[in-house]
Amino acid sequence: MIKQESVDNAKIVGSPIVHNVCLFLLLFAFWMALTGSLKTKFIVYGLITAATTVWLCYPLLLVPNRDGSKKYFVFGVSIFKFISYSVWLMWQLVLANIDVLKATTSQNLDIDPKVVRFYFKVDNPMAYVVLANSITLTPGTVTLNVDDDGLFEIHALTVGAAEGVLDGSFQKKVADLYGEDYEFAVVEEEE
């Protein structure tokens, strides 16, 4: 009964059938990559394993928004947007590495650690997770806290790292990844 409710639920953003098929294909491709064999028994085992895993795990991969009016599929992003975001993030990692390298190897040790804050509001809770983890993944920045109101607290090692977090590019890219409208506002430092 619970399984059928998770498929027929009108609160789910997107098509549950599409989500299930995509998850099945992803798991089956992963299975085939791990086995490295095209023997019939491995293909059959892969099909059965992927189908069983989708049937058991799909309800666990639906995340409700803050007010509970909608549910979002954890992997509910376009593959093309995901690839585009990943390439952009890799470039940001390169730029951040260069910034931290310059700051830590200069004679003046150009580090200026500070905690910066901003509000980022979207409906999809996965956008918060991706944004927080993307910022932490970038050298020179660590996400310290994200509260229920969408207030992010970020520790930035350098001035460049702080500016990179506060310029809104990360927030825009994450919102675009999930196709969400977003609100973004920098919280001014108290002196």
Please characterize this protein's 3D structure.
The protein is of the alpha+beta class and 191 residues long. It folds into two domains: 2-73, no CATH class; 79-187, Alpha-Beta Plaits (2-Layer Sandwich). The protein contains seven helices and six strands. It has helices at 2-8, 16-35, 40-57, 79-105, 125-137, 159-166, 169-178; strands at residues 62-64, 71-73, 114-121, 141-146, 151-156, 183-187. It has a four-stranded antiparallel sheet with strand order 4-5-3-6. Strands 1-2 form a two-stranded antiparallel ribbon. Helix 2 runs antiparallel to helix 3 (40-57) and helix 5 (125-137) packs across helix 7 (169-178). The longest helix is centred in the middle third of the chain and has 27 residues, at 79-105. It is flat. The termini are far apart.
Note the main attributes of this structure.
alpha+beta; Alpha-Beta Plaits; 6 strands; two-stranded antiparallel ribbon; 2 domains
Report the order of strands and helices. HHHEEHEHEEHHE
Strand content: 15-25%
Q: Which structural category fits the helices and strands?
A: alpha+beta
- Tell me the Rg in angstroms: 20 Å
Assign an overall shape: flat
**What is the number of beta strands?**
6
Oligomer: single chain
Estimate the helix proportion, in percent.
40-55%
Q: Remind me, CATH topology of the largest domain?
A: Alpha-Beta Plaits
What is the first-to-last residue Cα distance?
57 Å
Q: Let me know the CATH homologous superfamily of the largest domain.
A: EIF_2_alpha
Unreliable runs, pLDDT <50, ≥5 residues? none
Summarize the biggest pleated sheet: 4 strands, antiparallel
Average pLDDT number: 90
Known CATH architecture of the largest domain: 2-Layer Sandwich
DSSP summary: helix tally: 7
Q: How many domains make up the 3D coordinates?
A: 2
Strand order in the largest sheet: 4-5-3-6
Q: What's the level 1 CATH class of the largest domain?
A: Alpha Beta
